[in-house]
Amino acid sequence: MEKYRDYTAVDFLNDESFLTWLNNPTQKENDFWNGFLKEHPYKKAEIREATLVFNLFHSREEKLGLNETYEVWNRIQREAKVSKRTVLLKFIKYAAIFLLVFLSGGISYYFIQHTEKPIHFELAETTQTGSNEARIILSDGSEVSLEKQISEISYSRNGQQLIVNNDTINQHSGNQKEQINKVIIPYGKKSMIMLSDGTKVWLNAGSQLIYPSVFINKTRQVMLIGEAYFDVAKNPEKPFIVRASDIQIQVLGTRFDISAYPEDKMIQTVLEEGKVTLKYSGKGILDKEYSVDMVPNQKIEFNRSTGESKSQMVDVSKYISWKEGMLEFEKADLIRAIKQVERYYDVKIRLADPMIGLYKLSGKLDLKDEPEEVLNVIKLTVPIDWQKKSNGDFVIIGK
Amino acid sequence: MYSVENKEDERLIWSRFLKGDNQVLSLIYLQHSNALFDYGCRFAVDKHMVKDCIQEVFCSLIRTRSNLGETDNIRLYLLKSLKRKIIRELKNVNSQSSLITEQDFPFDLRWSENMDDQLYDLDEEKKHLLSEAMQSLTERQKEAIYLRFNRGLEYEEISFLLNLNYQSSRALIHRAIEKLREIIQVPNKKINHVLFCILHQ
Q1: How far apart are CA B190 and CA B8, in angstroms?
Q2: What is the CATH number of the domain that holds A259?
Q3: Touching check for A359 and chain B: CB below 8 Å?
């Protein structure tokens, strides 16, 4: 650290560690440079200048799209006289998995044949959750409202009886078809559902889960809009499949979290335990399905507009703490945290300046408090202040 | 960006490829295709041509596999062969280009996307000055800056790609930095505000 004491902006820009910090910081660089700034506050001006020069020089990049990446590789293979298409597809699939698991930071693409046909509850995708009432809709169309802040629903083995917050409801399954039930949880509420196979699902605020009251088909399929944490009961004969937006997650028995809110560009999957296969149904010319096996503690973020995915090893507890009423962040963008607070309390929080959203936030937020108190805690870690408008909306301003 | 810890992996991956492992080539391809594509587009406007050249780089790897040596820097090897191929191709296509020496080959250093963001509200005058200063850089200066700040290359690697010695490639970047600093150092309330924000992210 000593050598940096007499550094000028130019010296900083010549330093590998400094550049890594700006370009692609790891925990190590962050700790080091934040510590350095704290100890040598008089270096701030030089570092500021170096940062601005860096940002000026860091120019916009062209990217190969998914299709183009595939197309060029295809041509290479053809020329290399590997003619069998299936072999080729396998190549890329294994390469991509290898890349995802063993190397960090790379963008990868995977290609496999389309195998399974989508299941039947397509209609659900169009229904919006909004700020409706929390309720469960049974297969005959009748609705039971869920008045508690955190509702508990549990099914009997045969799916004919369910307990909703201590009330017992009977539901008849007349024929051989699956009886579809649906739970809608608006912003500001949460729910825990135990399905007939013993699988537990924690449904986060602003989410919906659609599932059969009893699983009679070859696979156990449910559909999710929003975020949920799954603790899937083991049953090797009947794989459990979660469909969320463009992705499908197939498991035998495991614990994981999926966040796929319609308004978010990213679909995020975090695996806590066991093994899951993540599949993504591609759009466009190729119309292929890509799949990857995840390992515990892995997080995969899927960008639905570009089809790119990013993999990372993470501390899983930070991603599932919401089910205990806590939000945990590590260098998360403030805007992401604010979105979660909005969903949890069903309030509107506006940023006076979009730039504020880029502040990095680390730490725990206890959601048992009122939103005002949560904002006060955030205020301690980033230079912001907040106001409450007469209509109940919050506005965050920079300090 | 690229980290030094990957060096061992690189050596391993490359030796697997040399031994005839084709699967590992797709790994190399996936890891570098975007960087190659972006670098290529800095020389050539025609994206199809850039893709063709990337294809050619990998095909010639396969063809010449038995003649290739060890390396722990696959990326540098790929960037170098792509640049060579693109410049040759450009000279073939355009007779005017054929007169340009490699030193003067145009390199497109685009105005940084960070600058167009709301993130920096630099006033128009300063923006103009900075953008002018960027455009007044020599073509090789632009390339050196790109390799340093976008690709995160070290000076040795930059000198290899530019056919310069270590000192000259350092000097190229140094002079470019100084140019911008002169403009930046004119006191400006707005700029200071912006910098404050960057640091507090």
Answers
A1: 46
A2: 2.60.120.1440
A3: yes
